[in-house]
Write a structure and sequence with these properties.
Number of helices: 11
CATH superfamily of the largest domain: Periplasmic binding protein-like II
Radius of gyration: 30 Å
CATH architecture of the largest domain: 3-Layer(aba) Sandwich
Shape: globular
Distance between the termini: 95 Å
Low-confidence stretches: 1-42
Number of strands: 10
CATH class of the largest domain: Alpha Beta
Length: about 325
């Protein structure tokens, strides 16, 4: 009898110990699970930054997509959403209403929008600020070699494509024509065509000259020059210098001889900068983080497009328009402003 009681007691003690151990184990597991759940429920906050570019076949989109992917890969603070758009003008308008936080444009468009001048003299300033210079491109006017057109002054009375309607590139071509005393609405027959369509009509002899903005060598001109004798339309030296002096967002550029088939001389052109800007409402911390990652990880996406080689901290910081506080903070930390 005593033996039976003793054995029963041992069994009860064993069960008690086992239950106790199970209880401890459950508590320990619950603690880990709670910690894991807590970490899952409260992730590091990321700012979404929508970036307006242009059509998916253009340089804006290619560069923007590569830059955005690199920032997303390396940052735990911002998430860049690259959005195709109709280009510069739409980007500026969308940023003004904070529907996008970042956008691509030529530097003239950013300057006019931020200062309420040029295209925005009637509508007034937009709520946008500069973020970074990206790369240079050239305003290129192309004519057929047998047309007799050598400079912009020879375009009077001609059929001329001034660039895609609604884009800042149109204002570049008009600026040069006015510098020659040519009214772009009265003294020529103006057309507003996309790059490919303008070059196609030029090749077929339907128009006399076609203007566009791109970093040289432009693929469209390379293609037409392989089968057609073309000429790049030059700008007289003094006129080009005056244009640049009057417009801080333009600079004196040269497309070297032999850039295109049959081009035997250098051609003077208006050069402008493709620029990234931000909505003034975009958070300072988010723009700071974007600029930091976009510049410091540039080697990771530099092969996506030849123009990305120009994206350096020094060049990026030299915007002529007021900088967004987040961008300014980064450049000041690096001793660039």
């Amino acid at each position: 009898m005593k033996k039976t009681v003793k054995v029963a007691s041992l069994v009860l003690i064993s069960v008690f110990v086992l239950v106790s151990l199970m209880g401890c184990s459950k508590k320990e597991n619950a603690s880990v699970s709670t910690e894991t759940t807590t970490k899952t429920a409260k992730p590091t906050k990321k700012y979404d930054l929508i970036m307006g570019t242009a059509g998916t076949s253009g340089t804006y989109y290619v560069v923007g997509a590569a830059m955005g992917a690199s920032v997303n890969k390396n940052s735990d603070k911002v998430n860049v959403i690259v959005q195709p758009t109709k280009g510069s003008i739409e980007n500026l308008n969308l940023a003004n209403t904070d529907d996008i936080q970042l956008g691509f444009s030529n530097s003239d468009g950013v300057y006019w929008a931020a200062t309420g001048t040029g295209n925005y003299a009637k509508t007034g300033k937009l709520k946008i600020q500069a973020v970074m210079n990206l790369y240079r491109s050239q305003g290129q006017m192309v004519a057929l070699k047998n047309s007799g057109i050598k400079t912009f002054g020879d375009l009077k009375g001609k059929k001329v494509n001034l660039g895609p309607s609604g884009q800042t590139v149109v204002e570049i071509s008009k600026t040069v024509l006015r510098a020659y005393g040519i009214d772009p609405e009265k003294d020529i027959t103006p057309l507003y065509l996309a790059v490919d369509e303008g070059l196609s009509k030029l090749k077929d002899g339907e128009i006399d000259a076609s203007f566009f903005s791109a970093a040289y060598p432009a693929a469209g001109v390379v293609n037409i020059a392989s089968t057609t004798d073309i000429r790049l339309v030059d700008i007289d030296d003094e006129i080009l210098k005056k244009i640049c002096a009057d417009n801080p967002f333009y600079s004196y550029g040269i497309i070297p001889a032999n850039t295109y088939n049959g081009q035997i001389e250098d051609c003077r052109v208006v050069e402008m900068i493709t620029e990234l800007f931000a909505s003034s409402a975009a958070p300072e911390d988010a723009i700071y983080e974007f600029v930091k990652q976009a510049l410091e990880t540039q080697p990771q996406y530099v092969t996506a497009h030849v123009s990305i080689k120009e994206i350096t901290p020094q060049f990026a910081s030299q915007c002529v328009t007021e900088l967004h506080p987040g961008a300014l903070k980064y450049y000041k930390e690096k001793g660039l402003r």
